[in-house]
User: What shape does this take?
Amino acid sequence: MEFKHLCLVRFKDGVVVDDIIQELSKLAAELDMIKFFGWGKDVLNQDALTQGFTHVFSLCFDSAEDLAAYMGHEKHGAFAATFMAALDKVIVMDFPFVVAKPAPQPEA
Amino acid sequence: MEFKHLCLVRFKDGVVVDDIIQELSKLAAELDMIKFFGWGKDVLNQDALTQGFTHVFSLCFDSAEDLAAYMGHEKHGAFAATFMAALDKVIVMDFPFVVAKPAPQPEA
Assistant: This one.
């Protein structure tokens, strides 16, 4: 079962979000323990639902141990310092991800 | 590009979360416009990071139009009434999901 590290954030005014995403993409490409990285920006803008959060970042690992190895990696430390300084607010959730309805597989 | 509907929640005391998950799994199985349903419960329990949220629910659709069709479906209406009544707090984010590092594919 994959282990997810999910961040909801709102960036400070003036932050160049594309630069942050590019940096995290580079980190994900470099570190083998990151099995998947995806992100999104809310487009419905319903503040009562989003509570002001604008972006979601989703990293996937094979296990909680791999997440811990990532959190302890020096490249994560360097990125996290930049990332956290750019945030107005953040929520982080870490969980084994249960797939209740799998995505349809493309036909062979 | 897939379109995600992501909910972070904290349930009220006394709510049987397994029943809610079972109900949402049944709904996802019944409705074709839901392409994927997964969920997780935070296991690191770092309140400063989770802000007290405990569960994540992730529904995926082919498009924002399919999400809108789901939101307008009578079966969603019935479920949502139960779901919202069970929640202490909730954040909902709706976004096209950008895959920056795809998951490795199993070898053929």
Q: What stands out?
A: Chain B touches chain A at residues 4, 6, 8, 21, 24-25, 28-29, 34-44, 46, 49-51, 53, 56, 60, 64, 90-104 (CB under 8 Å). The longest strand of chain B covers residues 87-101. The beta strands of chain B are 3-11, 36-41, 55-61, 87-101. The two ends of chain B are 24 Å apart (CA to CA).
